[in-house]
Known about the structure:
about 525 residues; 20 helices
Amino acid sequence: MKMRAIIVEDEPKVRKGLAELVNWGQYGLELAGTAANGLEGLELFLQCEPHLVVADIRMPVMDGLAMTEAIMERKPDTKVLIISGHDEFQYAQRCIALGVTNYLLKPIGKKQFHAELEQVVRSWREDRLKGRQIHLLEEKLKSHLPVLYNTFLDDWLSGNAPLSEEALQETFAFLGVAYDFDNSAALALFELDISEAGNYSISDRKLLEFAMHNIVSELAEQIGIVYQRGDGQTVVIYQSVSSDLVEDVMLWADRARVKVSAILNVSVTAGIGPEAVHIRQLPRIFQEARRLLRLKLTFGTDLILHERMVHADSEEAAAVLYESEQTLLAHAVEMNNIADIERSIKGLFDKWKSQKPLAYPDEVSFQFIGLFTGLTHRLGKTIRAFLDKENMKKWREPELFRSMDEMQEWWLERFIDLSRAYEGYRSDRKTKIVQQAKEYIDRHIYDQVTREAAADHVYVNASYLSRLFRDVTGESFSDFVMRKKMERAIHLLQIERVMVYEVADRLGYKDPSYFARVFKKYTGKSPSEYQ
């Protein structure tokens, strides 16, 4: 695109000279016309909308400065090049104030005029490039505003972006968030009653969550701020002229819940913040609404959940994982016994589900965190070895679970994954136990070594030690002890030349003749034949 220019000059010779002085096309310019005074120049400007105006100052009817002022009011980005025969400071000062591109004194030479035109064209092109870049950025910003809108509101309400009220007002204005800072607000948090472990695919669930958000947004028009969270929940910051704002939002939320359920054929549960508050307190109310929404794990779904439904009292049940239950589950994990893990998890959740409503169902998840961490550390690993980024979120925020069934399934998967890592650990542990028992036998070979004493030494029961010995060494505990005693007897008889009766005594045999019979049965020779 060429830069259009007009010349406004009252002297005909100068006007013609300027028009013919320049090869306009050479500089990327197009001369769109000339005018004899400021009024004609303004009319010509309005007619062809040039990018550059070359004008004198002193002209009849309307001077160049008045014309420039009128042009700048209509199109401030117009380039204006003033050519004047008057070297007066007041003119130059006025031109600067009007935004004139340059001020040249007559007479001007061809070289100087060309140089000025080159500079003006270069500046115009740079401005156009910047304008296009700014336009692209503005368009990109517009396209990203919904994402920025949602992300900012969620970060702010989640406590990740604490801002002063003044900063909030500026950000709300930038994002187009309509909020009355002089009045309080209540908060409602909507969630579809769809479990991740349910029959809906991820795309179906996302589509339903998007539809819920759109329906709630339409119903909340003119009464509040609505945005969608990354987990599919829809948040409504509710403002009205009601004297009881919380009661008002509860009634409205219930109507919205019924409407969404009827359209989508999926039930919806909403958590309502416990009170109406000033904007600074909304992050706290948001966290309360999230906690209340998780009460659907015990109260059920398709409800409006509010603090008054769950006032703490002595009748509330608590999710408790007793030590005996922890021991059984831990043993099942260590033994990689999937059936026992499933039995333990199912039994615990059945117990908790059958109790009176839990005031804090997320504590169910907390019961398992300590046990899981301890079992993980026993392997010399961290929990991050078993939890990816998505699962780590649920570990830290059990309120993300949509139902007790979903929580049950998630923890079952975690403990089964962990149990698989114990397979190698168990093999190493068995070998270590047997090795420790062998060392104990070597140190006490001259004593009456019993299975019970060795088992106590390695902190297992005697029957388990017997099984381990046979699994790891291929021989029984008693056979191993006998073999070690006979090997020691041979050493004493051949190397140290100890008498037979003394060898029998050292090895715990009170009757030398009995020792001799055992020795011959084991070696095929009598003790005296080894001397």
